[in-house]
Write a structure and sequence with these properties.
The chain has 228 residues and is of the alpha/beta class. The protein is built from ten helices and seven strands. It has a seven-stranded parallel sheet with strand order 3-2-1-6-4-7-5.
Length: 228
């Protein structure tokens, strides 16, 4: 399993540098950047300190959708609750959700939005779950570098083996379940923009490995029935 940190359109070079430093300090290596050149500013290097290789090796993408094409489970972050998702999970609970998935996922992304406005509603829809940092007060809020550090510290407790995934490995089971469910819902008449469709997919994304295996078996039988 590998965890990727994705920053969407960060505008402040110092924040990107601080994020790189947090990622390196907590034992991670993958930084993905969406539609930004902030990491190229020397101010980012100053804040990164001894973590400049994180900036230098960062992958660049034009959109969040492009940056998550190979991701099995996408964790979005938000400072405040939006109406896009029903459930929000505190940052200190995400490790339990990841542990429950065991080998059913290979690549996980934790996504951070813009300093001023966060992730758009469309970007939040691309995420499988949404999480936020519980705070005693709503203001002042955490800046981007601080948020990345909190999540990097939390995720570091998982003691994940961060080897690069085998490109020839089978597709992650959670991703297979997601695709199969989308096809079945479409076949029986549920539209993608319907509330129940989105709710089903949202709940699907928090299942543990045992339930994922169970549903895959059921869906295999359903597909056989639909195709006969």
């Amino acid at each position: 399993m590998q965890i990727h940190f994705i920053l969407v359109e960060p505008a402040v070079p110092e924040n990107v540098g601080a994020a790189a430093r947090a990622i390196k300090t907590m034992g991670f290596s993958s930084l993905r950047l969406v539609n930004t050149e902030a990491h190229l500013d020397e101010k980012a290097s100053w804040l990164a300190h001894a973590s400049n290789e994180i900036l230098e090796n960062a992958q660049e993408f034009n959109s969040l959708k492009e940056a998550t094409r190979d991701i099995d489970w996408i964790i979005g972050t938000s400072a405040k609750k939006r109406r896009v998702n029903e459930d929000y999970y505190p940052s200190n609970k995400i490790n339990d959700l990841i542990k429950a998935k065991a080998s059913s996922v290979k690549n996980i992304a934790i996504v951070f939005g813009r300093e001023e406005s966060g992730l758009t509603n469309e970007e939040l829809k691309l995420c499988d779950i949404i999480t936020s940092v519980p705070m005693k007060t709503t203001y002042p809020s955490l800046n981007l570098g601080q948020s990345v550090m909190i999540y990097a510290y939390t995720l570091s407790m998982l003691e994940i083996n961060e080897k690069m995934p085998d490109q020839k490995a089978d597709q992650a089971e959670l991703n297979i379940l997601k695709l199969k469910t989308e096809n079945i819902l479409s076949d029986i008449g549920f539209k993608k923009d319907s509330a129940i469709y989105n709710r089903i997919m949202e709940r699907l994304m928090i299942l543990g490995e045992t339930d994922i295996h169970l549903l895959l078996s059921i869906e295999h039988k359903i597909n056989d029935s639909l195709n006969h």
